[in-house]
Amino acid sequence: MSKSENIFRQFSSANLVNVTPEELKANLQGRLGEIDFESEGYLESELEQQRDLSIKFHWGHDHDFGDFKIDGRMGNRHLYLFDKFLELFPLTVGSFENKHVLDIGCWTGGTTLLLSAISEKVTAVEEVKKYADTTRYLSNAFGCNAEVISESLYDLNSERFYDQFDCVYFPGVIYHLSDPVLALRILFNTLRIGGDILIETAGIQSDEPICRFDGNYIYHQNGTREELNRGGWNYFIMSGPALERMMQEAGFEQIQTFWDETSKRLFAYGKKDSQIGICKAGLSVPDIK
Ligand SMILES: C[S@@+](CC[C@H](N)C(=O)[O-])C[C@H]1O[C@@H](n2cnc3c(N)ncnc32)[C@H](O)[C@@H]1O
């Protein structure tokens, strides 16, 4: 059994703190497949523009609660990624102890629970309200020290979030962002000096610092507008050297990138050694710290 599997096993119905196993099962199963655009803030008239995941509830990471199991779209990715980060970069499970971790794009909370078991506190951020609510429900059910913020990571560009975290955990999101450099700078600013960032992303295997722009047309060349938007919202897909340059631009140092042949994805690590400035020319939010 891997390190992460061993840690994650504790999130079974036998270890619930604030709800009963019956309540947990009914609550979570009641969410699956629910179509709810109003509480996400979408009008019916703009539905065809929106991502399927934002409208209809889909479970994220596989979770075996012991008395029942929910399979997610992301399988056991949360466990694979954590073990991979430990294998590739200068980290152990103990590195997270006493740390306040920022978990970006938590979906239904698999990673949030995992990280809360080994760190002092987790703050999870998720732009889709229904997934933020689910993560909040789960972390309360298991008595985790986790705060869940139902906002976009771009909203973290505020005084309240500056210099707050020891680690930013950022897998599976950067290619969904229209402005990855700005996102990296916002996350850089949320870190305390000495803090680090762990990134995983879809990528290009190349020694050149290149990005490919996907957009939704790559999925359905001849599709309707609705089909196009259900494709996946992937914007910039980058090579290791391109990601390294973006991270440098945002202020990170001690950067390492690694192409994983098994998952065919890119992994990266960086540290905030000082509150270095950023070039503001052309930046979409020029008044950023
Ligand atoms: C592919 S999933 C990755 C989930 C998890 N981080 C992982 O690596 O397995 C992307 C998640 O990020 C969320 N997301 C995308 N853009 C976001 C943004 N700007 N701010 C916060 N969350 C975002 C999505 O709603 C989704 O839950």
Alpha-beta classification: alpha/beta
Radius of gyration: 19 Å
Biggest sheet features: 9 strands, mixed
Order of helices and strands: HHHEEHEHEHEEHEEHEHEE
* Proportion of residues in helical segments: 25-40%
* Envelope shape: globular
Counting DSSP E segments of at least 2 residues, the number of strands comes to 11
Ions and ligands: S-adenosylmethionine
Beginning-to-end CA distance, first to last residue:
43 Å
| Residue fraction in strands | 15-25%
Mean pLDDT value = 94
Count the helices. How many? 9
Low-pLDDT residue intervals, each spanning 5 or more residues? none
Q: What do these coordinates show?
A:
The protein is α/β, with parallel strands linked by helices and 289 residues long. The chain has helices spanning 3-8, 21-31, 52-55, 77-88, 110-116, 129-141, 180-190, 225-229, 240-250, and strands spanning 63-64, 69-70, 100-104, 121-125, 146-149, 165-171, 191-204, 211-213, 236-239, 253-260, 265-271. Strands 3, 4, 5, 6, 7, 8, 9, 10 and 11 form a nine-stranded mixed sheet that branches. Helix 5 (110-116) links the parallel strand 3 (100-104) and strand 4. Helix 7 crosses helix 9. The chain is globular, with a radius of gyration of 19 Å. The mean pLDDT is 94. S-adenosylmethionine (SAM) binds at residues 60, 74, 77-78, 105, 107, 111, 125-128, 131, 152-154, 171-173, 176-177.
